[in-house]
Design a protein that fits this description.
109 residues, mainly alpha, elongated
């Protein structure tokens, strides 16, 4: 049970750090919480069996890093919507060109 918790905690912690760096940073909270829970489970099992907790400390460190990165990005990332008039004009122009090409097609029977 202890080794399984450590392995799952490490997997979720690494996955949380990877997601925190990517544009999907808001999803990194889920594996970070799971890593924290598996880390706690492994920590209590290790204390009960009097085994070393070095790997468990790495799980907690990676979890803290991922939560800090995701929180920082959540607070300081600004989503801007660009000028939609230019986009609409480009779309209208492309539609006109497509209609012109369709009108120029000669269908032979």
């Amino acid at each position: 049970m202890r080794k399984g918790s450590i392995i799952l905690g490490l997997i979720f912690a690494v996955f949380a750090v990877i997601l925190a760096v990517l544009p999907l940073y808001k999803l990194s909270f889920i594996p970070a919480i799971l890593a924290f829970l598996f880390g706690l489970l492994a920590f209590f099992k290790s204390k009960k069996e009097a085994k070393p907790t070095h790997v468990i400390q790495v799980i907690f460190l990676l979890t803290i890093i991922s939560i800090a990165l995701a929180t920082y990005k959540t607070i300081f990332t600004i989503s801007e919507v660009g000028d939609t008039k230019e986009l609409q004009q480009t779309e209208d122009k492309l539609n006109e060109e497509a209609q012109q090409e369709l009108e120029d097609i000669i269908i032979l029977d």
